[in-house]
Design a protein that fits this description.
This protein is an alpha/beta fold. 42% of the residues lie in helices and 14% in strands. The protein has a three-stranded parallel β-sheet, with no helix packed on it. A two-stranded parallel sheet has the order 4-5. Strands 6-7 form a two-stranded antiparallel ribbon.
Length: 221
Amino acid sequence: MRVAREFGAEFAVDYRKEGWPEEVKKLTPKGRGVDIVYDPVGLVAQSMKCTAWNGRLLVIGFAAGEIEKMATNRILLKNVSVMGLHWGMYAKEEPETVEKVWDGLFELMESGKFKGTCFTDEEFVGLERVPAALKALGGRESWGKVVVKVPQEGQTTQQTAAKSKESGIAAATSNFGLQKLEHSIVARLSEQTERRLLALAFSSLFEDLARWKTRIGRVKG
């Protein structure tokens, strides 16, 4: 909750406490509830209790590990919309959208409206630190993105850590496997052409991964 406030949250509610939806409603005008729920964890069913009439629930992911089942009568009674967002599939289904999104993100970064949330309480440098990083994730000891910095050829782990701090560039993989590969990047780039090249590179990356997966499947078959 402290970290959430430091990154701009006006209010913070502990969802581990019983009755937290009621606390959320109390924070809204006349206790009407919230208009939009952004849920990357898997608490949509409970969030429905503090959603306003004509509200919208965005299903982003299931970090908690369980796939939720929702009572459709609640969706009807509150006249709410439930919408899923699968960013990884945009490269395949809507590739033209990928560049627009990255352009928008970099504009937010450059204007200072977007602030990356990379975990900084502990530093992970080198592939040998991956188990420790995963342990921090699984043990709920982290916040934001957990970044594992990989030394380049000729660099020591100390040099990699120092360079990362100076340049402000970090790349993190939060899930392993072709189907769940996500990339989180915080970078300072000024030229429009560089931003577009980076967006196109990520779009091509997802396409290449899909092709590799197909080839691997054929070899195994």
